[in-house]
Amino acid sequence: GFGRSRGQHNKGSLHEIGVGKPQEKRSQLDFHSQFSGICENGRSARLHCPYSLPPKCNSLAEAQGYIYLLAKDQHGCRFLQRIFDEGIPQDVQIIFNEIIDHVVELMMNPFGNYLMQKLLEVCNEEQRMQILFMLTAEPGELVRISLNTHGTRVIQKLIETLKTRQQISLVISALEPGFLALIKDLNGNHVVQRCLQCLSNEDNKFIFIAAAKYCVDIATHQHGCCVLQRCISHSMGEHRENLVEEISANGLLLAQDAFGNYVVQFVLELKIPSAMSNLIFQFEGNYVHLSTQKFSSHVVEKCLVVFNDEVRSKIIRELLSASHFEQLLQDPHANYVVQTALRVSEGPLHNSLVDAIESHKAISRTSPYSKRIFSQKLLKK
């Protein structure tokens, strides 16, 4: 809304999901002190987990056989991450062997997810393929993990670290059936965005096709409207054309929606001739109605800013010809449209607008909304 708050939903920034604080180098002493409370003897350990952790665990060698349990423990997870930081392939393999059968569970674990993110950074390609096979063996599994608060972080890391054609194909095939669920989910939408950022235009084709197909459903959703804009930004050629065409074809509907209006404004800013023509055709004759609605009034303001002088003049004349123009001045939403019209208009048209407003000065001065028009230095000819 043009540098001011008018009660529109604030999309906020789509912050990246990190992988936690960097870990310091491991030391046997640190590991022992962290675990002294739970590893001193079998009895104490059994109080903390269903299976006892190793007594007096001072090294990876002593932790063997218990690595899966350690991965789900706050301190144990940190200890294992430090081993990954040292990057010794043999140590990575030892940990990998004990957790590979539990990767799905660990990805959705509050502590295990950090270990899995770190593993994806240090594992070799054979190990990465084994992880991928575990994640894609059961249909819907990868989507389920992506929708999880902790799992989404790991799947984003997985997408960042994909190396081969086979790996990319496995992930795309697993995500595609759950596209709509992902893009409309608080956690899942970040996975779609990571695909847009990390994969090629061709690899992201499944996203662009589905986004165009479910355009209205996605555009009118809290999370979907943000991702749809990013789909347009990352797409090229026919995929971008199709997306923009679908959005502009539904422009009148979307302009009046709490979230869809953002998408229409985004498309207007692109100034693509075919989309502009489509939106101009739909909006013509509806500007008065759109100006008095909370969400679409923002779209009308955007039209006044981005359209050429000829179209801008038509919009202002349509507003001036309203049967009760004074009501627009007193409307909680339309008054902002009038202010924008005053700012962007010039010459005789601007003077006509000023005259129309001045003629209702007595009535409008009593309205808290029209006061804004008169209080600003917009009525100069």
TrEMBL record:
Region: Disordered, residue numbers: 1-25
Pumilio repeat ranges per the UniProt record: 62-97, 98-134, 136-173, 174-209, 210-245, 246-281, 282-317, 318-355
Keywords: Repeat, RNA-binding, Translation regulation
Gene Ontology biological process terms from the UniProt entry: regulation of translation
Protein name: Putative Pumilio 7 isoform 1
Record domain PUM-HD: where: 34-381
Claim: RNA-binding is one of the keywords in the record: yes
CDD domains the UniProt entry points to: Pumilio (cd07920)
General function of this protein: Sequence-specific RNA-binding protein that regulates translation and mRNA stability by binding the 3'-UTR of target mRNAs.
The species this protein was found in: Davidia involucrata (Dove tree)
One cellular component term from this protein's GO annotations in UniProt: cytoplasm
One GO MF term attached to the UniProt entry: mRNA binding
